[in-house]
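Hey,
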Amino acid sequence: MRIAEVLRRNGADVLVVRDANEVLEKFRDAYVSHALSADEKTGVIFLGGVEDKRQSALAEYHVIVLRAEDIMEDVLSAYAHARARSNHVFATSSPSKTADIEGKLVFGMHGPRRVTVIIEVGE
């Protein structure tokens, strides 16, 4: 699955499972949200809702459940799929990271320090 490779390169942990509910218990210390859609090529994940935006930005650890059928071929299709499901759409693809003027990389400055994406492939 190409998106899993892309997300890992972006710094996210990725699990591919048949049923996300079976593994969600392991993530009690994380904020869990459900993706509206994602782009297979870039790993951009679209989420929706004002509360999801606020909670995911404040969370130290964010877990995103993504259904395989919501993975689209390109970012425009993924965005259109998300917009059809929510009026408030935002995107993510990795843990929050920024660098200072000397190039020192810092995680978690503007969002979660750690991101796990659970891709649910169904049966």
